[in-house]
Amino acid sequence: METSAIRMFGVHGLGEVQPGDDLAGMVAGVVRAAGEKIGENDIFVIAQKAVSKAEGRIVRLDSVEPSAMARRWAEGHGKDARVVEVILQETRRVVRMDRGILIAETWHGFVCANAGVDNSNAPPGTVVLLPEDPDRSAEALRRRLEAAFGVRLGVIVSDSFGRPWREGLTNVALGVAGIEPLMDCRGQKDDFGRNLQVTVIAVADELAGAAELVMGKNRQVPVAVIQGLSYRSEGSGRALVRAPEHDLFR
Amino acid sequence: METSAIRMFGVHGLGEVQPGDDLAGMVAGVVRAAGEKIGENDIFVIAQKAVSKAEGRIVRLDSVEPSAMARRWAEGHGKDARVVEVILQETRRVVRMDRGILIAETWHGFVCANAGVDNSNAPPGTVVLLPEDPDRSAEALRRRLEAAFGVRLGVIVSDSFGRPWREGLTNVALGVAGIEPLMDCRGQKDDFGRNLQVTVIAVADELAGAAELVMGKNRQVPVAVIQGLSYRSEGSGRALVRAPEHDLFR
User: In CATH, what number is assigned to the domain containing residue A114?
Assistant: First the structure.
């Protein structure tokens, strides 16, 4: 009887990432130090926070001048008006602004709390933005990691997003390189020989979520490696963003 | 340098599940036949469809008399009025009914397409409903699997749901037994010693999503086992359902 097995592990000991750091080089170093072997088609899931820091996507709050709107929202909800200002600057459209919660559509098209702007694990007095182009970040990391390990790889840049209707955050894929993020089963047959209906699986999001199980939120484990998955090797994270005209909830 | 590793595998060869089948016994049989060892705190993720079939949650469409509302919606969108009628019977509240898509809040509180009613992998002329009480299903499976393997286990009953804003379905946890589904990091410190803010991770949903990577949609792999995770052992899937009064998107 066959089984299909996947193994994943978290990469510990990376240390604090600074603007300009060679993140892929640091990751390769700790993977080697841990004695882990990287094989063909292994997938690296890397937390957005580490990627953003390496890319210098950090804003010093003492450089921010809040708008009147940012001040009003901040005062009404006990928030830092400078942080709210940065959130609004990262926002293409406000989806909900209610009960102290700001759900924004970012310039990338992601819909998430605070437009992905976050001060947890950020140096004091700063906030960290999402990468400017997470697919580009993923692709750059993939090239460097492939060169370091000499094998073909997939890379996902991930972040934890909330969602309607269900409690808790789940890790999702923002940027994707070398992996088709959606697995389209619509041409396939079910066990009774009928065509499967609406069955497109967001594999990249499930990979990002799986990775979080070994990453941990408060420890310095911003990288996970997933081994043993068969997947199609072309695709980008943009395919995971639903077009507004097909969305019933914006 | 330490790494934390998780292994997961899909359980092949289960065969078609019939009402009244001893699903836990069937699962234990194929796991043993595959030569896999089950250890303390391993987690079984079991697809809702198999659980529902074993529980007899199957409706024969020739027994269904569609209401006028079901007929109107079915005619407008090329659907089977009897299937629509079953969906409406499983629905506590319609969340969206637009462009041929019916997003419903089920009697359990889940918000999903078609109230979870599905005819893929259902015997011809039938549809399969969600389990009546997925937590109860998970707990019953857990007791039987623990007895079969002689170790403490966690069980998740999962299904693939769509979500707003992002393309594709992801597998989520409907019923949970022996696992705390939400990991609350709010008391913990970040790397700079500050309290982490809104950081409650939906671990059970990430486990369900991870499991789908080895389950496959069209193959008869409705069970996955996840090994090597440390987790809190008390909890139910109900905790994952956001109360309507805290939801900005209903």
Answer: 3.90.1660.10
